[in-house]
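REVIEWER CHECKLIST
Item 1: Sequence provided? yes
Item 2: Single chain? yes
Item 3: Sequence as submitted:
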Amino acid sequence: MPLTLYLLGLAIFAMGTSEFMLSGLLTGMARDLSVSVPAAGSLTSAFAVGMVVGAPLMAVTARRWSRRDALMAFLLVFLLAHAVSALTDSFPLLLAMRVVSALANAGFLAVAFSAAALMVGPQAKGRATAVLLGGVTLACVAGVPGGALLGQYGGWRAAFWAIVVLCVPALWAVWRAVPNGPTPNEAAVPAGAGTVRAELRVLGRPRPLLVLVLCALVNGATFCAFTYLAPLVTEVSGLSPRWVPAVLVLFGAGSFLGVSAAGRFADARPLPLLIGGSVIHLAGWALLAGGGDRPAVLLVLVPVQGALAFAIGSTLVSQVLYAGAGAPVLAGASATAAFNVGAALGPWLGGATITAGLGYRSPVVVSAALLAVAVGVGAAALLAPRARVARTG
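Item 4: Structure as written out by the authors:
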């Protein structure tokens, strides 16, 4: 894999830390800003909504810029939005800055995914995607628990300042390593694929649409449980708040192992990984929903669910890039948008169940339901061609 992909992963590490770290900061933010925990959870949904809207919008906006200029501009806006967030006492302004951060993050990821697909050979998109999403999983391993520790001992604002600091070397790395010119594989892009209308036609075909829907459902399940993991640890399992960073590390470690394994199999054997992994993943959410009040069950299942979530999720992202090969600009943007449709839907549904008085275990039940829908949709798509053959035969 090109060194540039790993340097892009550094920037994605900083952005992933920001996106995920609120799961360990919600209680302190809610108390400091005088809002409820579900209201503080809406910061995660606001970020995800900004990602959904921003991915295609920013990708189209930046399509005439050089990749290096686009990536640096998005990263700089992301840095400044976090500085404002760390300084404000206004929840509405913080909410607005989460949206601005998300727009910048979406643009960065959309350009990075598209660039990665063109930097590698035509059969290595899964490995390239795994390298980029490795930055996200490392954020879960190190950045998110680190943010939780900073939140406990220095307040949630310290975690936001840490993101600002992380963005500085990432800016330097992008400036130094990302080329301005075309990559060697761009000559293989089909003629005429550069127009927005042509790319939308490619992404409107059944296979890309199916993969995008599955990507949203699987990630919705992941974010629904993950956003409310801290209260699950303290209120349901009865562990002390000091356990929250450790549980986040377990989820992140599992995520890193999952995305690393997916990088090895996503290109050659994606279907067995998706089918087998999804069935086990669904069983894991069901077990966690039923046994989350037992610390041993929680501590065993959290890393397993993290591994499966990111193995399946990264494989689906790479499948979007394969299915949308004729849409070099918007395929990465669509994958980013679908990923974050789930990231918006999941926390919102989880917060709604908590607000309805169903308790902090209920988001895990929602995660199981979302994944059950994904399994059902995927199974229906696999069986439909066989049913047509049987009818005509």
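Item 5: Key structural point noted by reviewer: The radius of gyration is 20 Å.
Item 6: Recommendation: ____
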